[in-house]
Amino acid sequence: MSNASHTKKRKANDGRATADGAHDVNTSSSNNDGGFPHISGEHDGASEPSRDENNTSQLDRMEQMMRRMEEKLATVSSLENRCEQLEAKCSSLENLLGSTSQSTKEQIDSLHLQLDQNCNSLENRLESISQSTKEHIDKTLKYNEMLIRNQNWEYPAPVYTVNELADAGFNDAEAEHIYQTSQLLQTNTEALRRGNFPQSNDITGNGDRGPGISLGIDGIFDDDTVDELSPHWREFAAALKDFKPAFDVLPGDSKTCIAFKGVHLNQELTQLVKDALVNIPFKILSFQHSCYFHGDMSAIAAMIDSNKYLQKLDIYRILEMDRDDITTLCSAIHHHPSLVDVSITGCFSRLGNEMLRSLLRTDELKLEKLSMPENALLGIRTGINVCTQLADFLSTNPRLKELDLQNNGLDGSDAVMIANALRSNTTLRKLYICANDVGAVGDEALRRALCDETSLNSVADSNHSCCIETDNFSGNNDEDREINRAEKIYGLLSSRNKTMSNVQDFGDIDVKLLPNILESVQKYSNYGDEDIVKASSIVYEIMRCWDKIRRSSGNIRQSMQDVQCAKGEASSEERRVT
Fold first, then answer.
1. How many other β-carbons are positioned within 10 Å of the β-carbon of residue 427?
2. How far apart are CA 273 and CA 113, in angstroms?
3. Which residue among 13, 102, 121, 291 has its CA within the 20 to 30 Å range from the CA of 164?
4. Secondary element (H or E) of residue 6
5. Average pLDDT per run of 10 along the chain, which is 578 residues long?
6. Residue 58: which residues within 8 A CB-CB, separation 6 or more?
């Protein structure tokens, strides 16, 4: 009974186990969505179809998952590429921003610099205007102060009549001289005290118009006469010394002048006048008609040195200056900073050549105008001919624009030397050489210097800028050198056309002259003189020899083309090497 019971109990257990196993299979199957079920060995054969279906379903699901993963990976790769592009773009933007920032910074710096420069320029201009205005106000105030200071001034020196002077023991000429001179000095002194220039006409007699002072005194008298005039000279010197503010309010281009004519002063009065002229800005200083200052030329040189504004010096008929006077005067002229015009007339009968030689001795002569008529430059020929030195000087193209050598004893050989120098000189504008004994030889040399009619080339190469005046002819009368040149070319063409001889000279013509020839023909064909031929006649001659000109022009054009080709080949080779 116990065995049967045991057997029945085992079966019951086996049945429970079977049921439990089935349950486990189902539970495993239901709890494993993506995995493989746990399968008992006793039921493998019974569940085979169900497992295949489950496996297929699981594989499909895995494929879907793989595809989704691949899509996600592709998306990630695309995002990575996009990120790289964005990084590259950001880097490019950073570079662009850096470059733009640098360019903007440079532009801003440039604008700042330009603004600073403009501000500095405006500040300088404003400062200059302010300074100029201040100076003008100061000068005007000083001028008005001078007027106020002198408004109650009265001329203190007595002016005696001729009879009173005669009663004092002076003869008639002396009395008249003292009376006239004292009146002149009083008139000038009173004008200065009122702030006015006594004269405004041609003070020097050379066409120099402008405000100034002219003291023209006739006659030479003894010391007693000079002493009698001393009070008047003292008043004049004091007024002149106080007159500087009147110069300061004048326009800058005013040609102020002071002229001493026939003045004779002793040591005291000479020193008074010298002191009064210190820093008085006269532009023109003139000494005429045997002026005498104590110390001779050294006094005049001191007056020249004391005025840095002086532009013109006029010395007229102060006779017989000696070698010391020449040295002193030339030194003052050479070292003056603004003196450009010197006129020395009739001051020498023996040493004129030494005066000119001393003037030309320096290599840095600043003179633009030199007038030395009536000085017997070559009246006495001793030592080296001064015209040799003058010709050498002119051939260097100095600053000199006007030269007056009238009435100086020049002969034909002197004129030849000067003419040869003019062939290379282009700065001299006027040469006056009248009243000299240059003769036909000198005239021809000067004429050929201005117009050498040997050929058209020689005409073109002549001097067209210097106007020369001699006793027998004048040339280069127009200030425009190109007009002078064209007139000469047309004049030669016209004169040769009368004999139809232009053609024989065209064989050696410089083709570069053709534009000048045609321009001259066009411009001066109706010049008005009876001797001037018609333009058509000259053009006819030019056309007759056109083949010669065309061949010459063709050679020039071919040469120019060769040069251009050579330049092109050189440029191509340079680009190829680069």
1. 14
2. 56
3. 291
4. helix 2-31
5. 44 45 43 44 52 80 86 85 87 83 84 88 87 89 93 94 94 93 94 90 69 80 86 95 90 86 88 89 88 81 91 88 91 95 92 91 88 83 77 94 95 94 95 94 95 89 95 91 87 83 68 72 63 73 63 48 48 45
6. 34, 35, 36
